[in-house]
Amino acid sequence: MANYTKATLPDVQFSSNVWEILDSLDASLGGVEKALALPADCYTSDEWFEFERRAIFDRDWLVLGHHNLIPNPGDYMSVHINGEPLLVVRGQDDEVRVMSGVCRHRGHLLGGQSGNTASFTCPFHGWSYDLEGTLTGAPEMDGTLPFAELQRTACLPVFRSEMWNGFIFVNLSGEAAPLAPRLKGLTKLVANYQMEDLAAGPTVDWADNPWNWKFMQENALEPYHTRYLHSGIHDFAPSDRVRWTEWDPSDDAAIYRAVGFTHIDGGFNLANKALFPALPTLTLEERQQVVFAGVMPNLFLGCTPDVVFYYLIMPQGAGKITLRVGVLTTYENLALPTADLLMKGTVEGVGVYNDQDTLANTQTHIGMQSRVAPRSRWSPNEKTLWQINEWLIKRYKAYGDELRGLKMAAE
Hints:
Layout: H1 16-23, H2 41-44, H3 46-57, E1 62-66, E2 75-81, E3 84-90, E4 96-100, E5 114-116, E6 120-121, E7 128-129, E8 135-137, H4 147-153, E9 158-164, E10 167-171, H5 184-189, E11 199-200, E12 204-209, H6 213-221, E13 242-244, E14 254-260, E15 289-295, E16 299-303, E17 308-317, E18 320-329, H7 331-334, H8 339-367, H9 383-410
Antiparallel strand pairs: 1-10, 2-3, 2-5, 3-4, 4-9, 6-7, 7-8, 9-10, 11-18, 12-18, 13-14, 14-15, 15-16, 16-17, 17-18
């Protein structure tokens, strides 16, 4: 078994405000019928965001992209998440690895945004590494120590990774429970989409969104707002056709729901119709619905009849995130003469919904900074928000208990 790098952010001393928030979180548990929303500071406080980085993004599984974005040996892509520059690389052995993207000499970043290479060479001083992270060259270092010793101590750290439905996940701490066993329900629901075998179109980054990362999962997973914010364009997938999934604490890596269409082969564009031919592996029922799923914390999926669109949620602060948007469909669809035009229409169609959500999320983020920001009750059509909070609060409390234990031990 490989010895994977374990890396976590250093613990910090949090103010009393963080502990007050933690002590107030029980009010957000217990079902949509009685639970309250999270306190506003959970969305707006920079200190709480630093707490989240350690409690969640350091410790759980983070999605980095789809493996068919790097289909060939030597293909790689760079992803910066939770302050960590990473290289996602397909080796000559066809294995996908997640390695540090930081040169072991002076910390210069390696690689570009994406590409194909036989090795990574740092432009600063020429140190080079193979596709498994092994140091292969360190010019002019012989006067310091033998290369064999340097090679033993200066290879690129490799992080623990796991694949689910073709999506590549990393666990920076190296200590999270395996991901796939906690995705049993969603895995069964989306089995016929065969995402692992779909082609991955180029991703698009929508950067500098001025709102909290949790809003993305919340708005994507609750249907309450679709009747109002997306009135007209979302009517083909009405909220009264939602099929809920009950919360299962033993199968908690994803929160999801299905929504029936008013017609076959619906699509999230202004025509409300799938632009590509439908995926051939779907049933008739699956061609008349969408599955919205959040693999917590940072993957959102929309499984539609012709494509699966997905978002990688990459927070930079309490009020700033980048969304990396990708689309999966069959290789046959991408080989169509009109594929570029259809893909452009697909991405722009999703963008119409995203623009409305972005405006709502931006306005909500501003409102949550009010001195009288609400901690509200939820509609029955916001059942998934309580489920999100169940997932979050379990992790918030676990980390808080750990810090309290360390403090008591030190005393």
